[in-house]
Amino acid sequence: xxxxxxxxxxxxxxxxxxxxxxxxxxxxxxxxxxxxxxxxxxxxxxxxxxxxxxxxxxxxxxxxxxxxxxxxxxxxxxxxxxxxxxxxxxxxxxxxxxxxxxxxxxxxxxxxxxxxxxxxxxxxxxxxxxxxxxxxxxxxxxxxxxxxxxxxxxxxxxxxxxxxxxxxxxxxxxxxxxxxxxxxxxxxxxxxxxxxxxxxxxxxxx
Length: 206
Description:
With about 210 residues, this protein is mainly α.
């Protein structure tokens, strides 16, 4: 059974950058809904035993079109939000260190340019979607964006996401209304770069 990440912080812990009501609604309604729907569809399709990354990378193997679509949407929502919530912390902010910082410097022109570029990708995503920092085979860092609940795995890009910016309106609209760029700027105050570093190391070892 696929399970939501357990939050190591309270819903109000990311204030004032992300408000408590948004966090509670986002996690207990949206993410919980994706998780429930994924488990139901995966069981019906006979793929509930697969790892989520394997499942999202092989959606074409699901012959039933309706189930494939349901797993794509809800599996993406489940996986994307596990990354999102797992990369936030009330002790976050600042900049990454160690290997990840070095690779951002070497691959993406340094932290400030990385921050600017991924923020633009997220802010300019038409409609709902995500901005991504991913690891390609060989360890290269890549920036991209995806619509809806898609991600690089679903899109067949052979890249593993390690950090995502959720730009669905449910992630920010209660506090920031239509000011998506303000939400993205504020989000960097609560990014847990140690968690992103851990995701990076896991991606290197896949």
